Amino acid sequence: MIRVTLGERRDYDRRELRAALEGLLEDLGGIRQFFSPGDRVLLKPNLLSASAPEKCVTTHPEVVRGVALLVLEAGGKPLIADSPGLDGFAKVGEKTGMAQVARELSIPLEELDDSSPLPMAEGSVFRKVEVARQALEADAIINLPKLKTHAQMTLTLGVKNLFGTVVRQRKAEWHYTTGLHRDIFADLHLDIARSLAPALTILDGIEGMEGRGPGNGTPRSFGLLAASPDPLALDLSVCSLLGVAPESFPLYRAAKKRGLLPVWEEMRSPSFPEGFVFPAVDIPRLDALHLLPAFLDGFAKRHLSSRPVQDRDKCIHCGKCVSLCPAGAMELTREGRILIDYEKCIRCYCCQEVCPEDALTFSRGLILRGLEFFHR
Fold it and tell me: Mind listing the domains of the chain with CATH numbers?
């Protein structure tokens, strides 16, 4: 039986957060259960972009600090590392507060920038995946995701955070090759998580994000910390707390289809009794783009699916969406217009994810408008 521990913490006060983390891990046997003294322990936060902690785009530095101290005191050698989806790594480190944590604790902060083949777990759908060398060389990985909604995958929690071990440019390649097939993309996330097999996942849900996550949603206080040796069990447990119907969560569908749904036991604090659901969480609605046969995908994309549209009043013409579009479907003109080739656009929503000004909105497709009309 896999254990998932759920605890309450309303702020990032350093001393009280430390006690909360220790209490959270006590039901799992304590931090020493997950590595041996002298082990190199990779701490993998969510460092999507150069965003201040209060934006709730990235894992809070105090959570990373607290876990790093626990690792140090248990004799481990922690390393903070990630491969941001945009912005230079030095800028990301400073803006998110991770560089300060690394300096104060005298531990490395490294960009995951050297791809190596990942030995795939038995039963994997994908046979050839490359992740960062540092993730493969670590003796143990402690996965430190942020609780956020996600415009493409509904939620980004423990399993999807490990997609961050894929080196920067290869992320775009995977977005392009998986395209609109969310369940296939979820299969990829499952394969990476099962193959990397993090020793422990600790979710920062003290302050999280709802709405148009993972980069442009609305910060929300959830007061939640969660931990488990199994990131999938943690994700599905938190999914129920957020009131997300399991069948609407691509990760759940992919795991169910493959017979990988875990059996877990929740160790809840009194604040989260059985049946508790956070009220009225703004969960993004996803277009169901494959209701039609595959040969009609082009028609569905052109006429039925939601598509990105530039908000020229917000756009600062930084060009990040253009440079990171995996399909090469965007162009920035001298006049500051974003031209989008909707025939090439694969509706991965990476442009919305990376835009620092939330200047890419979506014209709702007929499918989504129909679902909303019928309140489905």
Answer: 2-268 (3.40.50.11440), 294-373 (3.30.70.20)
